[in-house]
Design goal:
Layout lengths: L8 E5 L4 E5 L7 H10 L3 E6 L6 H12 L4 E6 L8 H11 L4 E3 L1 E4 L7 E4 L4 E6 L5 E5 L6 H16 L3 H8 L6 H13 L4 E5 L8 H11 L8 E5 L5 E5 L8 E10 L2 E10 L1 E3 L3 E4 L5 E3 L2 E6 L2 E4 L2 E3 L3 E5 L8 E3 L5 E3 L9 E7 L5 H14 L4 E4 L6 E5 L2 H15 L3 E3 L3 E2 L2 E4 L3 E9 L6 E11 L8 E5 L11 H12 L12 E9 L7 H16 L4 E15 L3 H10 L3 E8 L2 E9 L6 H8 L5 E11 L2 H17 L1
Parallel strand pairs: 3-4, 4-10, 5-10, 32-33
Antiparallel strand pairs: 1-2, 6-7, 7-8, 8-9, 11-12, 11-23, 13-14, 13-22, 14-21, 15-20, 16-17, 16-22, 18-19, 18-21, 24-26, 24-27, 24-28, 25-26, 29-34, 30-31, 31-33, 34-36, 34-37, 35-36
Length: 637
């Protein structure tokens, strides 16, 4: 069963009704990981026994912590040349700060990989058949018995550090029974104090069956997980959901997909029961809709079902909604908390080649936006071009390709545009009077105050502070002033990009009994912002990427020299066997086409991953170049 590189896939283990969502590993499709973790109760972090903990492993682990998801780790590819599970286990402890221990150990490695030793039950497992479907349990080979006892003791020690019940037995030197160790691992895993590490090779399903047994043994079932909703009828008061089919229906639409029969909406049911033909209410929009068809998904296959209950993941057809909407049976107004959606880091100008395909072009962009919260569409006010924004080159390339394949729309794509930001570096005061008289009612509005940068680490990017004392400006004009400042901050004067990390305080002003209006004060705020902005010494911020490179040591000089040329800052340099692993912070603007450059520098042997780190101030020479380029385009227009 092949997984498209950009899409997660829902699988169901029918003998135990376990829902598994397989997510892509590429950083550009991080939203697939976000939404899977948002709705699932446990996770398996897959690590490569050769590559070890990579930058994307760290990102995914951070996401698991954010959603407080208990997890297992699975060290894969033990049959590959250079496999070293113990190295990977140590990396998980140091780089991911996991309190972890192996619950299995391999019998042989690389081409000699034959099976696994279960350290809980102290049995050897061998996997026979073309797909490892026949599991044979035997006694541990004599030559591995001492190592297995040592590794089991390590496991017991690690679990007893976080489980009081097992610690008592361990400190009393009592023999630790398999059942007691099993229960202790389950308690420690569910409380997120311990990560059990499984091993194997997914290529021929060696070790996959014990891993699935581990999912059932150590990860929580839906009733053991605490899920909270927000009660919209009580000012978003938090409500604990029971996870019982007996309660009112509460379901979250976490993923949309265009199927053969229209929009397919994936729902995670947190409480209650949903039935085919039921009327359900979209709490976010207030619309009442009927469930015409209810299906259980297994990869690309669908099975029609009559009903589903709490804890299950199902899909419905014909329900118009957006990703993140909550559905109930109408008896309650609960909404589930939304998932974390990262900001896009790259933009492209896009247009349809043929004017006749404009309808399908718009339809495709609208659908892609509803499917993927990290894919944004906007209109450049200056050039009137359609701008698409996403998480990287591959992310946007795939949507352009899908537009061609699914909607038969040929699109031309402009040069990638980096999402720069502007900010200010010092405080400055403004005092602006907007006065216009042209017969009839004029315009009059005066605003006085100051602008200053927000302190580092502020949660907000724009802050408006009304510090007016008295009625110098009537209170009904203050929202228009705030709106004017926000509108002005959408386009800075340096390169026309949004201004962030800015605080604006309104201290005083003046109004006219006849000529003052919302429009007058909004315009006064816009002009005051432009006047004061230059005095605040604005600077340009650019997205900086965390880049991890792995390549043979012989090319180290060439690759590091190229990173320096791209204005990158090397922050880590490790050696892994014959490979050099470099971590660097590099401006995204200098990373276009890097994949081809790295291949040519390393004779095709180098690989890299990159993810968004933060926006940082550009150097003075780069700022001058960007400002001059922006002025040139404005003059040309």
């Amino acid at each position: 069963m092949s997984l498209p590189p950009y899409r997660s896939m829902l699988l169901i283990l029918f003998w135990r009704k376990v829902n598994i969502i397989d997510t892509p590993g590429h950083v550009d499709f991080t939203i697939e990981v976000e939404r899977a973790l948002r709705v699932l109760d446990g996770a398996i972090l897959v690590l490569c026994s050769v590559g070890g903990v990579q930058s994307q492993s760290i990102t995914v682990d951070r996401q698991m912590r954010r959603y407080e998801v208990p997890r297992l780790a699975f060290i894969n590819k033990l049959d590959r040349m250079g496999a070293d599970p113990w190295k990977v286990l140590n990396q998980a402890r140091t780089k991911l700060r996991h309190h972890s221990a192996a619950v299995q150990m391999p019998i042989g490695l690389e081409e000699d990989f034959k099976g696994l030793i279960d350290l809980v039950n102290m049995k050897a497992c061998y996997f026979h058949g073309s797909s490892g479907e026949t599991i044979v349990s035997e006694d541990i080979p004599a030559d591995l018995e001492a190592l297995a006892l040592e590794k089991r003791r390590e496991l017991v020690e690690a679990v007893s550090e976080v489980d009081d019940k097992l610690a008592e037995a361990f400190l009393s030197d009592e023999p630790i029974l398999a059942a007691d160790l099993d229960e202790a691992i389950r308690r420690a895993t569910i409380s997120r104090k311990f990560v059990p590490v499984f091993m194997g090779s997914a290529f021929k399903n060696k070790g996959v069956q014990p891993l699935l047994d581990g999912v059932l043994s150590y990860l929580p079932c839906p009733t053991e997980v605490s899920n909270q909703a927000l009660d919209q009828s009580k000012d978003e008061e938090k409500v604990e959901l029971s996870g019982s089919p007996a309660g009112p229906l509460v379901a979250l639409a976490f993923k949309l997909e265009e199927g053969r029969f229209g929009q397919l909406t994936y729902l995670r049911i947190y409480e209650g029961v949903i039935k085919k033909g039921d009327f359900i209410v979209n709490v976010n929009t207030g619309k009442k809709v009927k469930v015409p068809r209810l299906v259980r998904m297994h990869s690309n296959e669908m099975e029609d079902i009559q009903q589903a209950h709490a804890g299950q993941i199902v899909a419905v057809f014909g329900v118009d909604c957006a990703s993140g909407d909550t559905f109930t049976d109408g008896s309650v107004r609960y909404t589930m908390t939304s998932m974390s959606v990262p900001e896009p880091v790259m933009s492209l100008a896009i247009s349809a080649v043929s004017k006749d395909s404009g309808g399908n072009f718009s339809k495709a962009l609208n659908r892609f936006q509803r499917e993927d919260p990290t894919f944004r569409v906007g209109l450049d006010p200056e050039s009137s071009q359609t701008i698409i924004s996403g998480m990287g080159e591959l992310h946007l390339d795939i949507y352009v390709e899908r537009m061609k394949r699914e909607y038969k729309v040929e699109a031309t794509v402009g040069k990638p545009r980096v999402n720069f930001r502007e900010t200010i570096t010092q405080r400055a005061e403004f005092d602006y009077l907007h006065k216009k008289q042209s017969g009839g009612q004029g315009q009059y509005g005066r605003v006085t105050g100051f602008m200053e940068p927000l302190p580092p680490g502020s949660g907000t990017k724009f802050e408006f502070d009304n510090m007016l004392v008295g009625q110098a400006i009537p209170s009904n004009f203050v929202p228009a002033i705030e709106k004017g400042f926000k509108e002005a901050a959408n386009s800075g004067s340096l390169i026309g990009h949004p201004v962030e990390n800015i605080r604006i305080a309104l201290i005083d002003g003046a109004a006219h009994t006849v000529d003052s209006s919302e429009l007058a004060f909004k315009l006064a705020a816009i002009y005051a912002f432009r006047q004061c902005y230059e005095l605040c010494k604005p600077v340009i911020l650019e997205p900086v990427m965390l880049v991890e490179l792995k390549f043979p040591t012989e090319f180290q000089g060439t690759v590091t020299g190229d990173i320096n040329k791209r204005k990158g800052m090397i922050v880590g340099n490790d050696q892994e066997a014959d490979d050099c692993v470099i971590t660097a912070h590099v401006p995204l603007n200098n990373m276009f086409g890097y994949s081809t450059a790295l291949r040519s520098m390393t004779q095709g042997k180098g690989e890299f991953t990159m993810e968004y780190l933060e926006h940082m101030q550009v150097s003075q020479d780069v700022q001058t170049q960007l400002v001059n380029a922006y002025k040139a385009t404005r003059t040309g227009e």
